[in-house]
Structure formats: C-alpha cells, structure tokens
Write a structure and sequence with these properties.
two-stranded antiparallel sheet, 45% helix, mainly alpha, 2 helices
Length: 53
C-alpha cells in the first residue's frame, strides 16, 4: 500500500523555513548520514540562517 503524504506537514515546515530561514545545507546532511555506523560518526549538523537567493 502506498505511503500517505502529509501535505499539511510539508506546508507547515516550508512556511517555518520561509519565516526563519533556518536550514541545514544538503551536503552537510549527506556527509552526516554517510558517517552513520562508522568509527568517525559525525554529530548532527546544526540549522543556521540560509541567505535568500
């Protein structure tokens, strides 16, 4: 059975981002996830203000 998408939650998170501009850059998330289960596991990267482009 396909997963049900929660569009309301997506909208809430996007609206929060537009208001605060807080996010974690994708390359940092990828590096963090890639480190899981290794001997050099990274700590979760913090959210920070992202400049509006």
């Amino acid at each position: 059975m396909p997963e049900i998408l929660d569009i309301g939650e997506d909208r809430r998170r996007y609206d929060e981002f537009k208001r605060t501009r807080l996010a974690v850059p994708l390359d940092e998330v990828k590096a963090w996830v890639a480190s899981w289960g290794t001997t050099n596991e990274l700590v979760r990267p913090p959210a920070r203000k992202i400049a509006q482009s």
